C-alpha cells in the first residue's frame, strides 16, 4: 500500500511511516507513552554516540541524576516551575501506603542537579563543571500527543554547566551551539538558529537560543535549545564558589538539550512517498544486500551474498542480508526503501559471474553496476553523495517555505494557506503584538536570527509602529 | 584518610569507596534515589557495550517500552504481581488533576512488553522474537536502601523472548547463560550458577536460574537471573501464533536480566584497602599518566606526558594525564588508586632521558621500568595479567568462603560467625526447612548448582530426613 506524500498530507504520511518503518508503535495502553521500536532506538543510539564523542572532546562528563524530585524543589524557583506545573506527574502512593510528601517525576532536571552541584562546588578550581545526562523525561500532556513530537515520556540529553562569570557561561553557550550544529549537519538537517523573544525565554533563563528545522508541511520544529541561566538558579539552589579573589560568589550557569524530537525532524525532512531516507551516518542499516535468486542457484547466490556482507561489514558498514525465501526481491526493495536504508546492493547470477554488484541509491533511485574491485570506493563516494544531496534537499525545503510579509494581511494570508511557511517580518517587540499573532494565526514569533546578523526592514507587522527587530514567524509543533 | 579493609568491615568500606571513587553520590533528597556519578556511569556504559555486541551476535534487538503500566495489567498475572505490590510507586495525579486510573511505574516490564508482543506475533515466522530493553526500574523499598545493591531507582537490562516450544525456550535459557557467563568472566568475577528452589522461583516462571557472586564479607550477591516462563504469561496476555501445523498455540517465553547491582559486585570483589581495582576492559580510565615534574623541567615533562597519552590512546586505551599542578605525585597516586585505574605510568626527567617510563600495576603495586619501544607490548601483557590475576583472586575469595555443614548446629555456627560464608549442605526440599533457615539464621537456600552436577551427600541439614538435593545456603543482599 503506497504512502501519502509528505508534502501534501504530512500528518497522514507521518503517522503511517512511524509505524511501517518500525520507528515507534503507539498501540500502547496509555497514549503518549509509546514503544520506541528497534529502528527508532538505533537512530537515537547513533545520535548518542555522536554526541558522546563531542562531549568527550569538550570535557563534558555523563552522569545520571534521580528521576524523583521533591515537591519543594520545584517551588524554589517558582518562575521556572510554573510553566511545568500542569504537566507534572506525581507519585503519591507506594504499594497501598500514601507518601508523606508527594514526589514529582522530572519534567527537566535543573532542580535536582543544582542541589547536587551546591554540594560539589566549593572553589574556582571546581569550575567549569560540565555534566550531561541522557534520561527519560515525563511531561504528561493531557490533551494532544503525537509520537516523537509530543510524548508523555521521551528521551533527551540535558547538559548543565557552571562557570565563574557571565562571560565564561556565554562562551559555553557558543560551544554548545557549535556542538549542536555539527550534529545537525551530520544529520543533513536544514535549520535556523534563533534568539527567542523575552516572553518565550526558558523560565529562569537570561536568554534562550533555539534551533528550528522546517517540516515539509511548512511548520517549524524546535530541535534543540541552549539557555544562559545567569545566576538565577545558583541563587535559588545556593551554588557558590570561592573565587581567586577570596570572595564567595554565585556561579553562572548554562543548560542545553536535544531530544527524540530530533528523530522526528530527520524522518520528516528527508522522507518521501516511498518511506524514510536516513542520513548514512545514523542509519541502523546502512547497506542491505538482496540476493536475486533463481531456482537452481539459490544456495550459491545466498552464500555469495553473505560473504559479500562480511566484506562490506569489514569496511565499517552496518549491513543486513535479506535472504528470506518467502518474499520476492521487489517486495524486499519496497520494505527496505520504507525503512530508509541508504544503499541497496542486488546480487544475481549474472553479477556473480561478472564479479560485479548492482548498487542502488535510496534517495534518487539511481542504479549503478559496480565491479567488486571498485565497490569499497563506490560505497564511500555514494554515501557521501547521499549525505550532501540530502543536506541540499533539506536546504531547498527551508528556502522554499521561507517567505516575507510586511503587513498583517500578508502574514495572515500565508499562515492561513495550506502551505503555511516561515515568514520573515518585523516586530515592535511588544508582547501584545506577538499575542495577536498567536491568537489570530496560531503561530509564534521564533525570534531574531542568531546565526546571521539582520536589521529590521520595516514597521511592526501587527501594529505598524517602528520595527525593533527582524523576526521570523511560523506555526510550530 | 585510609579506607577500612573490605574483609574486616565491608559495610564501612563499601559506603566510603562508593563516594570517594566517584561511583555513586547518595547525598540526594530522597533516599535510595541516587546520583550515578561519571565513574559508575562509565562502567555501566562499558557493560552495555559488551552486552550489545553479544546481543547483536545472537539476534537480540534493543527497543524501549513505556515506563507507565496500567493497574489492570499488573493484576492480570496475579501470581506475578503480588511479589511487587508493596514496592510499586503509583502516579495518581497530573498537575492538580486526579487521574481516572492510577498508573504504576514499572517494577519490571513483562506486562507491557507482552501486551505489545500479542499485537506483533501472528505466525511461526515471527518467532523467535528476542527483544531487550535498557531502562530505569522503580522498586520503592520503604525500609532499607543501599547504593547499587538496593535502590528505589536503578538501571537494568531485561531481555524477553518468545519461542514456539518449551524446548526452544529452554535452549534460549542456555544461550542467555552463555552470554552472561562471558560477561561475568570479562568482569573477572567469580560466581556460581544455581537453579533456585521452587519457593524462590520468579513469580509466574517455570524455573529460575540465578548467578551469585561472593562478597568479601562472606555474603552472596545475585548478579543476574534467567527465567523460563513456560506459557503462563502468554496465556495471561494472549500471545499466540499460528504454527506450521495450522494450529494456534501459545508461545513459550524466557526473560533474563542484569542490573547496576553488577557494578556493586565488581567493586566489592576486586577492591582492597587502597580503593577500587577495576577490570581493565571496563575501567573508565585504563591508563593514568602522572608527570613527575621538577622546577626547571615542568613544561617539558608535561608536554612529553601529553604526547605519550596521544600514543597510548592510539593503541586503543582510555588514557588520562593528571597534570594538575596543585597536587603532588604521591597525592595523585592515591587518588587514581582509589578510583581503580589498572595501570599508572610515571614519567620523570630521567625516564625522558632514557626513553623509558615507569609502569605500575594497581592490583599488585608492582613497578617496572619499560622502554618506550616495549611499552605497547608491556601494556597489553600487563592488562592481561591484571585480568587473569583478578579472576584468580576472585576465585580464591569464593573458595575461601565456601564451607560445608551436615548439621543445623554446624550451619548455625557458620552463619552466626562474623565471616559467614557459602555453605554446601543437603535439604529435604520442604519449604518449612528453608523457612527455618531463613527465620533462625537470616539466610536463604540459593538452590542446587546448575553449572555442576551434584548429588545429595547426606540428610536434610534442618530436619534430618532424607536429603533430596545438595544445596547452598548463604546470607544474601
In the predicted model, the low-confidence regions of chain A spanning at least 5 consecutive residues are: none
Any idea of the CATH topology of the largest domain in chain A? BirA Bifunctional Protein, domain 2
What would you call the shape of chain A?
globular
The number of distinct β-strands of chain A equals: 23
Give me the Rg of chain A, rounded. 25 Å
Which structural category fits the helices and strands of chain A? alpha+beta
**CATH class annotation of the largest domain in chain A:** Alpha Beta
Q: Please summarize the sheet with the most strands of chain A.
A: 11 strands, mixed
Q: Provide the domain count of chain A.
A: 3
CATH architecture of the largest domain in chain A: 2-Layer Sandwich
Strand content of chain A: 25-35%
Helix amount of chain A: 25-40%
CATH superfamily of the largest domain in chain A: Bira Bifunctional Protein, Domain 2
End-to-end separation of chain A: 28 Å
What is the mean pLDDT of chain A? 96
> How many helices of chain A does DSSP assign?
14
Quick structural summary:
The first copy, chain A, has 477 residues and is an alpha+beta fold. Chain A has helices spanning 10-20, 38-57, 71-76, 78-82, 110-120, 166-186, 232-237, 261-270, 298-314, 329-338, 349-353, 375-401, 408-416, 431-441, and strands at 24-25, 35-36, 61-62, 68-70, 89-94, 97-105, 129-138, 153-163, 192-195, 207-214, 220-230, 240-242, 248-250, 252-259, 287-291, 319-321, 343-347, 356-361, 367-371, 402-404, 422-427, 444-449, 469-474. Chain A is built from 14 helices and 23 strands.
